[in-house]
């Protein structure tokens, strides 16, 4: 299996965190190709930034066309996911949908632990888009400014653990989702400190993507995820234009 893992933001330090957790999670014989968005922002926490990240991810996917059996969109909130599913005839998995799927298999209600307060509204919308608002116990987040996106775990580990315990004991969470690529791998650290299962988006996405590749589903020839119809376009990167041709 060949999986393309795309970081939709421009932070190479976050790409390294994603890759480290992906390598810990991947099955023997699966090859990972890691890519970072060529343009955009350091980390995504707003709807507009997600719009930019989704387009950047689509451009990366087009550049690697024909070189993968599955794609992972490695940012919580799944920037551009639905559109990229239309573009590709192989499984495309987002961190959010994968983490939510894992959480729903492990418990009834889940809480999301996020890296910023601003990001909460968008995350709630993402949960709603997946039809799971009734199972969301809470979204709790850091409130302090971030020194560096690549050092969030190092700088805020104690507070992230505290928020997770609060979500269990005060909000009734059966499962904790540590959200966002900057927290990739944190679930492994927290799992013995939190009294419920802790889910990581990167490892969930890698494993779910492998499962879908193994199932060898057909690409969508009809329905809402069929490929976009060919039509005149202008100004698109050559690789993306070629995929749409």
TrEMBL record:
- Supply the enzyme class, top level: isomerase
Q: Does the keyword Isomerase apply?
A: yes
Keyword Isomerase applies: yes
Recite the UniProt keywords alphabetically. Answer: Isomerase
InterPro entries linked: Asp/Glu/hydantoin_racemase, Hydantoin_racemase-like, Iso_Racemase_Enz_sf
Q: Which GO terms describe its molecular function?
A: amino-acid racemase activity; hydantoin racemase activity
What Enzyme Commission number(s) does the record list for this chain? 5.1.99.5
Q: Which family does it belong to?
A: Belongs to the HyuE racemase family.
Name of protein? Aspartate/glutamate racemase family protein
Its source organism is Ralstonia pickettii (Burkholderia pickettii)
Per the record, the gene is hyuA_2
